[in-house]
Amino acid sequence: MGMLMTAMTVLLCIAMIVAAFVAIAGKSLPIAILSAGLVSLVASVLFLVLASPDVAMTEAAIGSGLTTFLFFFVLGRVRKGEHDGGEHD
Amino acid sequence: MIAYLAMATGFLLILIGFYGALTNRNLLRMIVAFTIADSGVNLVIVAVGYMRGRTAPILDATVPAADAAARIIDPVPQALVLTAIVIGVGVTALMLAYAYRLYEKKRSLDIAKFMDLKW
Amino acid sequence: MVNALFIIAAALAAAFLLGLLKEQWRGAAYAVTLVALGFMTWISADWAWAFAMNGAAPVDIFTAGTEPPFAINLRMGRPEAVLTLIVNLTGLLSALAMKDALLALGRRAMAVLLVATMAFCGIILTRDIFNLFVFFELAAISTAGLILLSDDDRALSAGFKYLIVSQVISVFLLIGIIFAYHATGTLNIDGMADAAQALLPGGMQAFALAFFLMFMALVAELKPFPANGWALDIYESAHPAYSAIFSAAAGTASLYAVDKLLLIGGAAWLPAATGIGIVTFVGANLLALPQTKDRRLLGYSSVAQIGLILAVLGQRDVLGDLTSFIALGLLVAHSVAKAGLYWLSGLIAGRELTAWAALRGHPLMVFAFATFLCLLVGLPPFPGFYAKWELARVLAAEGRLALLAAILFGALVEAGYLFRWFGHAIKRDKPAEEISCAPFSVAAVCIAVVAGWALGLLWGEMAGFLFGRSNLLLALPLLFALAFLLLDFLPAWLKNTLAIAGLAGFFALTWTEYDPLRLIFAIIFTLGGAIVLLASFSAHGRRIGFYPAAMLMYAGMVMLIRATDTFDFFAAWELLTVGSYFLILRGKHSEPHALSYLVFSLGGAFLILMGFALAAGSGVSPRLTFDIASLSQLAQPVAPWVFLLLAIGFMTKTAAIGLHIWLPGAHAEAETDVSPMVSGILLKAGLYGLFVLLMSMGKQQLYGVELTTLMLWIGALTALLGNLMAIFQEDAKRLLAYSSIGQMGYALFGLALMNHLGWLMALMFVINHYIYKSMLFLAVGGVAKRTGTRAMYQMGGLITLMPLSFIAVLIGIIAMSGVPPLSGFGGRWIFYNAILDTDQRLPMIILFFSGPIAFLYLFRLIHTIFLGQLKDEHRKLKEAPFWVVVPQMIYVVLLLAFAVVPGIALRRVDEYMNQFFPEGGLDWSGLLITSNYGYWNPVAIMIIVGCIFMTLFGWLLFVNRRAQKVKQFNIVFAAERPYRPETTHFAWNFFAPYRKALGFLVQPFATRFWDAVTGSLHAAADFTRRFYTGNGQTYAIQLVGFVVVVFLLARGI
User: Fold this and answer.
1) Cα–Cα distance between C545 and C568 in angstroms, integer?
2) What is the complex's ipTM, to 2 decimals?
3) Is residue C926's pLDDT more than 70?
4) Fewer Cβ atoms within 10 Å of its own Cβ: the N or the C terminal residue of chain C?
5) Which of B9, B26, B32 shows the shortest C-beta gap to A13?
6) Are A84 and B43 a contacting pair at CB < 8 A?
7) DSSP structure string for C724-735
8) What would the mean pLDDT of C311-338 be, rounded to a whole number?
9) How high is the pLDDT of residue C446?
10) Which residues make Cβ contacts (< 8 Å) with residue C51, sequence separation at least 6?
11) What residues in B contact A70, CB-CB < 8 Å?
12) A20, A50, A84: residue with CB nearest B26
């Protein structure tokens, strides 16, 4: 059981890091936002592994759901500025 | 072991988040990076509270109040994290509102364009 | 007393209530906001009163019914009461000042304002570290929210930069909190402090790192230099009332949070706080130098003041119980002044510093501006002054002189740029836009002014309670001067009568209390001042601002001679400096000169402060006060340093060479009746200081150099160079000003001779110089008034039109040059007797040399103005105004009397000096005055010279009857016939040959040196401020870098 938990934890951590990198360095902003949401989601699973179910629920709802929604809400309004500050330095 | 893994990942997330926030010039990407950093902080806090072999701090039939002290992990960090998550989303929402307003005023989301006040 | 939790509850309840009101009911919403803020203020005030008056004990409020660490507790103690009072009052008054903005923005802005104020109170009240984090986040969110709602373009980018940095700070803070919790097991601040003591070494390391993160996060909230670009943008762009809150309330709350945290960390972290604080103070003040925007300048100043208070908190280990007295004094002074200045800036339309000239013509606003600036700089009688004095004393006692020097340097720079701003406001042209008269904003400013003065009174009372001193603000001379502020609406002649009566009356009341030496100075300061004030009767109108400034100066001088304690002495010194600055500033072209005067004077004053602090800290006097007389008991190695510091400070006031560049401009550009006051009377304050210094400390040696010999050289050089520079002047008043420099050099020389006759000579100089310099300035001023110019070569031939002025100048010149029969001759005689005792040959020769040089400019004065040819445009001139002539005639009589019976003034002083120098005194029996080397018979000299004069004069009158009158242009030279007076009167560049021969001596070395100093400061500041690039990311990176650097430095230690 312990080995399984540890292996799962390692997998989750790697997934989080990869998603974080995508969120930072990814070319497309919607993909970046979704990756950040994925980081939150994986984090909430990790919270479950770490014996904090209420934190997991909160993180899933707020960190993943609400935040991603807010991002897309604003992104819709500022569609034109999506690529500002990226390529042209 | 799990706790150390989680803590390390948390710190790594914080570093990645800071890196993204301090090098990306697009406002929205900056806010995304800060979200990641916040997730990392929350992970670290929860990981600090974890104790091996113990279970969640919920008192019910399986974990009666009498021997709870020996069987649950530290509940305080979880309380802190709950507050921190909510504060984090509040600040994120505020920053998004700023990004929206700034876009309306300046038609740009590049932070290098907001340097009218200096020295 | 109401439970302090209601502060938070009321704010939240009101904010929610606002949400229930309709959007249109803005007035009602505003009323609710004001009521809530008023209620919160009342609670804080009630508690503060209870602590101050009734000796209440601190109360802990347990929020969940249980004690910590199972619940959060708040504490309402004495510091919390005062600090929450500051926060709530600032919030309330800012809400008043923001009335229009809030009504326009609606309920949301009002709710956010309430939450912000509540959050700052929460930071102060809480005793739980995570609760502290939550309140900080609330403060950050409400700050950013308010800025977002204000919808100002530039403020928006500033707000976003603020949010970026606050995110970084909150990450640091959270990580620090959780690991600190992990190490100590509690989130309660007091519990954590106790647990931290008991940690094992291994746990200590981890805890230290956690504490470091928390500490840096909270310190970053204080906007330390250089990691504070984000804050400066907010100061510059937000609504001024909000900047007031940001500066006063947020600064107060954050400082107290750091103070609470330092409880946990213990003494090991205090040096870090001091280091960051002092770098911030000096750095931010330096960077403020090149600023031209008012609100940004105030932002830099805020950052600097908060840094200073942080540095004071870091000195808690040596300050002990005095920490709260000092830190709170600086904090309240800063809060009231900054808030007031921001509210005042809300009334002014332009954002440039020069736009504040819109205040001209609004005496109340000018007074408010002046009050706030004096509060900030820490001038008496405000709290910052008391705080600075105690801080200096303790730091000097502990040997932390580098820190003290850095603090004083930063304070001097701050005074420089703040008063440069004041000069702009008073002297520049008024801009097109008038100041707005929004009643609530004006009310907020006025309340701040009243608060400032009330706090000065309060700190005086506290100082009296702690140290047994009398309250400065309640000293009679100072009250008399301040009364003129209230009486400023009266006509000038009435105020003048009151002033003269006050001076004369004060002398009549107190003259028996002085020893003979102080009596001379007292006569010059009070009765002498009264005579000079007679000339002010010639002014018309009301002369608003003249009498408070002048009487402040006189009050300072009077309090100076009455001071027995070094604190009173220093307070009087600063009072007379401030009063004379405001007085000199009134001259038409005096803006840069008044600033130069103030900076030099304050620099000298700070040196004096260091000297007194060193003396007080040396442990000679067991009590907390230090008598001037105790200076004599100082031992090596402190004594010569104290002597050096005090001597340089006093010599700044007497304009010794090298420190003299402020004097010509200041005295020449001052108004007609002000120049005699500052040149004739104020310079004597410096001499008085030197007298006191030499009387108590005597000769001192520093590294083998005899300091009084050094003073001798300085005196001789000052006399030579001052006189030399005077002869090349074309402006009559500048000539007299340089002459004052030279004469002060003579007096300095006499003092430094350290023998009986030398001191007598110095004293005779004091009396003589007062009489004839005042007379000459008045005469020249009167002539300048009539002719419209101060350039001597444009005058000429005025002897027939202004005979009384001519007589005054003639008598003055005869007296000054030392020609018999007037008193200058007696002074020379004493002087020669004095030097015969000394073995300092070279300075003596230099001094002899300066005598005839002085005569050159004196002759020029009378020749160029009164003799020579009358110019066409002056043919119809009248004599100088009546009231300007009256004091001159009084002086003429005084000079003649003094010449015949010098014993009136000098005899008792001579006897008094016997206690310092038993040998070398004069013998005053009969009409003869005998010294070791010869005798002097003033009556006989007067009779002889008088007879010779009458004989020659009579013969001249007789011969003149047969003289042939020649028309002005009835001369021919070199086959040219002149037709303009200018070409017949040799007046311009009169001493050209001397300039060729000796001009090399008067190169403006000193001016160039001081210009280089200020220039390099400005250049350094201009270069360094490019650090603040305007890019929010850069600011965040700078913050992270700052944390890393401090970490490495702390590791290194």
Assistant:
1) 25
2) 0.95
3) no
4) C
5) B9
6) no
7) HHHHT--BHHHH
8) 90
9) 92
10) C77, C78, C81, C82
11) 89, 92-93, 96
12) A84
Q: Which residues of C715-730 are buried (b: 16+ CB within 10 A; e: fewer)?
A: bbbbbbbbbbbbbbbb
Q: Which residue from C837, C832, C736, C833 is spatially nearest to C781, judged by alpha carbons? A: C736
CA distance B119 to chain A (A): 22
B2-52+67-113 is classed in which CATH architecture? Orthogonal Bundle (1.10)
In our burial notation (b when 16+ CB lie closer than 10 A, e otherwise), range C218-242 reads bbbbbbbbbbbbbbbbbbbbbbbbb
Question: In whole angstroms, what is the distance from residue C366 CA to residue C363 CA?
Answer: 5
Nearest Cβ partner for A50 among B2, B82, B99: B2
On average, the pLDDT of chain B sits at 87
Q: Residue C429 and residue C426: Cα distance in Å, rounded?
A: 9
A touches C, CB cut-off 8 Å, minimum 3 pairs? no
Residues B52-77 have pLDDT tens digits of 878 888 888 777 777 777 788 888 89
Q: In this predicted model, what pLDDT tens digit does every residue of C71-102 receive, in sequence order?
A: 888 888 888 999 999 999 999 999 998 888 88
Q: A-B interface: how many C-beta pairs under 8 angstroms?
A: 166
CB contact under 8 A, C137 and B118: no
How far is Cα C1020 from Cα C40, in angstroms, rounded to an integer? 45
Question: Residue C606: which of C384, C408, C326 has the closest Cα?
Answer: C408
Interchain proximity B24–A17, CB inside 8 Å? no
Q: Which of A39, A50, A62 sits opposite B36 (nearest CB)?
A: A39
Angle, in degrees to the nearest 10, between helices C823-835 and C732-752: 40
Nearest by CB to B117, from C145, C167, C1030: name it.
Answer: C1030
Q: Which residues, at least 6 apart from C368, have a Cβ–Cβ distance to it below 8 Å?
A: C340, C344, C445, C446, C448, C449
The dihedral built from the CA positions of residue C760, C762, C765 and C767, taken in this order, carries a sign that is negative
Q: Among C1043, C1035, C1040, which Cα is nearest to C230's? A: C1035
Please, which pLDDT band fits residue C620 given cuts at 50, 70 and 90? low
Domain extents for chain A? 13-77
| Rounded Cα gap, residues C1035 and C1038, in angstroms | 5
For residues C486-514, average pLDDT: 88
Task: Give the model's confidence band at C609: pLDDT under 50 very low, under 70 low, under 90 confident, else very high.
Answer: very high
**Is C478 within 8 Å of C385 (Cβ atoms)?**
no
Return the minimum-mean-pLDDT range out of C113-117, C462-466, C519-523, C527-531.
Answer: C462-466
Task: List beta partners, residue B26.
Answer: B110
Taking residues C650-659, report their average pLDDT. 89
Instruction: Please give the mean pLDDT across all residues of chain C.
Output: 87
Listed as own residue / partner, the contacts of C359-365 with beta carbons closer than 8 Å and 24 or more positions apart are C359/C425, C359/C435, C360/C425, C360/C426, C360/C430, C361/C430, C362/C435, C363/C488, C363/C544, C363/C545, C364/C446, C365/C435, C365/C445
Strand C705-706 relative to strand C701-702, pairing:
antiparallel
Residue the block writes with tokens 């005579």: C531
Helix (H, G, I), strand (E, B) or coil at C1033: helix
Where in chain B are the domains? 2-52+67-113
Which chain A residues are within 8 Å of B79, Cβ to Cβ? none
Instruction: Give residue for tokens 């001024």.
Output: C240
**What letter would DSSP give residue C346?**
T
Query: Side chain identity at B31, as an amino acid letter?
Result: I
Contacts of C1030 in chain B (CB under 8 A): 114-119
pLDDT confidence of residue A89: 39
CB within 8 Å: B98 and C167: no
Q: Are the Cβ atoms of B90 and C141 closer than 8 angstroms?
A: yes
Q: Do B89 and A39 touch (CB under 8 A)?
A: no
Instruction: Please tell me the least confidently modeled range out of C229-238, C574-583, C773-782, C1014-1023.
Output: C229-238
Q: Where are the domains of chain C?
A: 268-449, 475-950, 957-992
The alpha carbon of residue B78 is apart from the nearest alpha carbon of chain C, in Å, by 11
Q: Answer yes or no: do B114 and C157 touch at CB < 8 A.
A: yes
